[in-house]
Specification:
Elements: H1 5-24, H2 26-29, H3 33-38, H4 45-56, H5 59-72, H6 87-100, H7 107-115, H8 119-154, H9 157-160, H10 173-222, H11 225-231, H12 255-263, H13 268-284, H14 291-297, H15 302-333, E1 341-342, E2 345-346, H16 351-359, H17 364-400, H18 406-428, H19 434-458, H20 464-488, H21 497-518, H22 525-535, H23 542-551, H24 561-586, H25 590-618
Antiparallel strand pairs: 1-2
Helix pairs in contact: 1-10, 1-17, 4-10, 4-14, 4-15, 4-17, 5-8, 5-15, 6-13, 6-15, 6-24, 7-8, 8-10, 8-16, 8-17, 8-18, 8-19, 8-20, 10-15, 10-17, 10-18, 13-19, 15-16, 15-24, 17-18, 19-20, 19-21, 20-21, 22-23, 24-25
């Protein structure tokens, strides 16, 4: 092995600990469905926030972000808007509260509170389950590819193969490791449900914090600003950009220019504008039916749901990017020491594991490995937990066996968990890169999600049939449009094709959604009035608001659109500062760090006055 016995022991101790957590919490988690999927709604918001942050600190995403920071420098802070990362700001400001007021178990069950139990409501419910399962399979495949690539660097196949009754080709080794670690993650989430996930995530985030601080400090001690300046092209440390990217690695690491070309980010202003356009729409649509939504629904109250979503950015961004910056500068200055070959090809997604192998000392390497494996486990486990929540609660219990006992439902959850892991593993076998899966998930699939889910919050006339056909057409378009576009325009970089076709998917699904709603019967007014009174959204609810006020003149409609919009803008600025600040610290750009810190403090004070101080009165 390429790692010491001490490091291996640390990793094994971590794996034993998380499986033990699953066994310890098994009895409490299997008490009932709410206990299994939501921890009985008894978990404090800060633990759920740490758990959510740990789930977002995934190994595949971290490998991708290190690669971005290496190639694009400070300009890479904008690229995660692809997710978009600032969706947490929308959740913090108002959407978590709106969602939590419904008091349901899953996002699909929420559809009944919005559209009722008629034909449209049932179809809306079913299409959300379909979307949730496709999303779960995609994110599990994404994690599967990342963990396999990561572990391959540390445990080369020639070390393991003598002890196994089979052999593998080089390109299949990452898949073997992916299957091994996904199996361990599946075991502990099956046993302990949401409780197991949250307690394991708290342990995992503690490990990740220590590991991140260690590697960032190692980089600061080892690398001087002069060493970094000599190794990077002009403009690498500048987060701002013009029409084009203007980062030229010629004469330093020539292969990176090919990477930039293949990524398709050269026209950077257009790329960022597309991300902002998509990001605002996706964020306004609310959380997708995944583990993020499940943890919002698991909070004790709407106020705690908002606090949990805000806490995620505060704990995640500085810690994660301190480590990312540390690995990046070490990898750049000592690039010639890295082994980036995978399956006989140069693969920049191997920068992170190669840097750990080269620069982390004994003991710290074990903690880093345990932490990054923990990050994978956290994301994977939370995603696995989301699948049975939808299939068992929203399909099996509702349509197949309404009288099922808790014991039967928990067993059905076990079966669903194993099934989605197996299917996602098969999908992962055909995936070439982390970035390709990521782009399809956050651009292609979400293009079909956006319009229907924006309108469900803000427009009273959207009915269940409009929602169903809008979502269904979007899912089909996300699967069909990218390969057709690539066939017509073969010169467009493959990884950004989903982002390029996002507007087409948006228009296509949006037209079907709106036209279907307008040319079919509106939903039951009593259902709409009940939803409006419970959630109290702002938006285009005129006729429903008038009906509610007629029946209940004391009802106060939500007047906070302007304030919420202002808080979103300030929140995005705050979050971006939390990303840039640790990078400036690691690369010792003290002037930039001071400016960023000043902006961060001012924006935080604005949020304190305009958001936090009003939270108790608006989060009822």
């Amino acid at each position: 092995m390429k790692i010491s016995l001490i490091d291996v022991s640390i990793v094994l101790a971590y794996l034993v600990a998380i499986v033990a957590i699953g066994f310890v919490l098994k009895a409490r988690a299997s008490k009932d469905m709410q206990a299994y999927y939501q921890g009985g709604k008894k978990l404090p918001w800060y633990m759920l926030g740490l758990s959510n942050a740990s789930g977002m600190f995934d190994i595949s995403g971290t490998m991708w972000l290190v690669t971005l920071c290496f190639v694009y420098g400070l300009k890479s802070i904008w690229i995660p808007w692809l997710w978009p990362v600032f969706n947490q700001v929308f959740l913090m400001v108002y959407l978590s509260m709106w969602l939590r007021r419904s008091n349901v178990l899953t996002g699909a069950e929420w559809m009944r509170t919005r559209f009722g139990d008629g034909q449209g409501g049932k179809l809306a419910h079913l299409v959300v389950v379909l979307f949730a399962i496709i999303g779960v399979l995609g994110f599990l495949a994404y994690g599967f590819v990342g963990i396999g690539k990561f572990i391959e660097i540390f445990i080369p196949w020639e070390t393991v193969s003598p002890y196994l009754p089979f052999d593998l080709a080089d390109e299949n080794v990452p898949y073997f490791y992916g299957i091994l670690f996904t199996s361990i993650a599946t075991l502990y989430v099956m046993l302990g449900g949401m409780m197991s996930i949250v307690w394991a995530d708290v342990l995992q985030f503690t490990i990740m914090t220590f590991a991140a601080l260690a590697i960032g400090i190692i980089a600061m001690v080892s690398i001087t600003p002069e060493m970094l300046d000599a190794a990077v092209p002009e403009g690498w440390a500048n987060p701002f950009f013009g029409w084009t990217l203007d980062v030229d690695w010629s004469g330093k690491i020539d292969e990176i220019n090919e990477k930039i070309l293949s990524d398709g980010y050269s026209l950077f202003s257009i790329f960022v504008m597309m991300m902002v356009f998509k990001g605002v729409l996706v964020s306004a649509a609310g959380p997708a039916p995944n583990y993020d939504m499940q943890k919002i629904l698991a909070t004790k109250s709407p106020r705690e749901a908002a606090l949990m979503s805000g806490f995620v950015s505060i704990v995640l961004m500085p810690i994660r990017y301190f480590m990312i910056a540390g690995f990046t500068v070490l990898a750049i200055v000592f690039y010639d020491k890295l082994d980036l070959m995978s399956g006989g090809k140069l693969d920049f997604e191997n920068i992170l594991p190669s840097a750990i192998l080269e620069f982390a000392p004994v003991g710290i390497m074990g903690i880093l490995l345990a932490g990054l494996i923990a990050a994978f486990m956290s994301t994977f486990a939370s995603t696995v937990n989301a699948a049975p929540a939808y299939l068992v609660n929203d399909i099996y219990l509702r349509y197949i066996n309404p009288s099922a006992s808790n014991k039967t439902l928990i067993r059905a959850s076990y079966l669903v968990s194993v099934s989605v892991v197996v299917i996602s593993t098969i999908i992962g076998l055909y995936v070439q890169s982390i970035n390709s899966v990521l782009q399809w998930l956050v651009s292609g699939l979400w293009g079909g999600y956006v319009i229907s889910n924006i309108l469900k919050w803000y427009w009273w006339r959207l009915n269940g049939l409009g929602y169903f056909y809008g979502m269904l057409s979007g899912i089909v378009a996300a699967l069909v449009f990218p390969p057709i576009f690539k066939l017509i325009f073969p010169d467009v970089a493959g990884d950004i094709v989903p982002l390029t076709v996002f507007p087409l998917i948006l228009v296509f699904s949006g037209l079907i959604c709106v036209l279907t709603s307008l040319y079919t019967k509106e939903d039951d007014r009593e259902v709409l009035k009940s939803f409006y009174k419970t959630v109290n959204p702002w938006g285009f609810w005129g006729p429903i608001k008038a009906a509610v006020l007629k029946e209940n003149p004391d009802f106060t409609p939500n007047p906070h659109f302007k304030r919420d919009t202002q808080n979103i803008v300030v929140g995005v600025i705050t979050q971006t500062c939390l990303v840039a600040l640790p990078i400036f610290i690691v690369i010792k750009e003290w002037q930039s760090m001071s400016v960023t810190m000043a902006i961060l403090l001012i924006s935080a004070l604005v949020l304190k006055k305009n958001w936090y101080d009003n939270l108790r009165s608006t989060a009822l």
